[in-house]
Amino acid sequence: MFTGIIEEIGTIEEVLARTQSLQLTIAASKVLEDVHLGDSIAVNGVCLTVTSFTAERFTVDVMPETFQDTSLSKINRGSKVNLERAMAANGRFGGHFVSGHVDGVGTITGKKQVENALYVDISYPSELAPYLMTKGSVALDGTSLTIFYVSEKELTISLIPHTQEETILAKKAIGDPVNIECDMLAKYVERMLNRKAEKPASNVTMELLEKHGFA
After folding, report:
1. For each of the chain's 215 residues, which pLDDT tens digit applies?
2. Residues 68, 113: one domain?
3. How far is CA 91 from CA 2, 43, 94, in A?
4. Is residue 205 a part of any domain in this protein?
5. Taking a C-beta distance cutoff of 8 angstroms, is the pair 182, 128 a contact?
6. What terms describe the molecular function in GO for this protein (predicted)?
7. 11 and 27 in contact (C-beta within 8 Å)?
8. Which CATH number do you get for residue 55?
9. How far is residue 139's CA from residue 131's CA, in Å, rounded to a whole number?
10. How far is CA 62 from each of CA 66, 75, 174, rounded to the nearest angstrom?
11. In whole angstroms, how large is the CA radius of gyration of the chain?
């Protein structure tokens, strides 16, 4: 589990590409301060497992499903990536519940500076629409953000100066991909409502309960 508060920006040092998978070596420092083999680190919002590390870099594997469903398939040597360690039980919870499981990949369609805010427009897959709402939460490349505006095809976020400096979002260009993870609570609510609607009507009636001595 993650919070969407990015701890540092890492650099892709090596990409070992296979047909539908990758092995990435990432230069970092802060996220390696207390790292262990098997730890989870979110890389651009994708939860990945540390398979080896030194004091200056770590290695992760990207499996076929992750390769197909996230923007990591387009990563290159030298690319900058958002990094966050899994949330500690005794840490502050500054963002929102982020699982590190990407729901879809969007595309930056516009950028506009307004005073100290940077507005970024991002197109998103239509199937994510039920989980996106104005003033709702969303994780973009692992960054916890509040949706400034949402339409049927695009969402807009407003980046404060700190987020512009401490994450890769402001540095991305129009046309660049963005990993999108919708609010986990919204997904659970939608799932529960659908299951309730699909559940057949109960055969238990007051008459049946009285007949068998339960009422």
Report:
1. 899 999 999 999 999 999 999 999 999 999 999 999 999 999 999 999 999 999 999 999 999 999 999 999 999 999 999 999 998 766 666 778 899 999 999 999 999 999 999 999 999 999 999 999 999 999 999 999 999 999 999 999 999 999 999 999 999 999 999 999 998 887 777 777 777 666 655 666 667 656 766 55
2. no
3. 11, 20, 9
4. no
5. yes
6. riboflavin synthase activity
7. yes
8. 2.40.30.20
9. 12
10. 6, 11, 25
11. 21
Which amino acid type is present at position 4?
A: G
Q: Is residue 173 part of a domain?
A: yes
Tokens 């996220």 belong to: 31
Residue 35: burial class (beta carbons within 10 Å; 0-12, 13-18, 19+)? middle
pTM of the model: 0.86
Q: Tokens 């805010």 belong to which residue? A: 117
Compute the distance between CA of residue 99 and CA of residue 47 in angstroms, rounded to an integer.
7
Residue whose entry in the numeric block shows the structure tokens 């992760």: 60
Q: Do residues 120 and 152 share a domain? A: yes
What confidence score (pLDDT) does residue 57 get?
Answer: 97
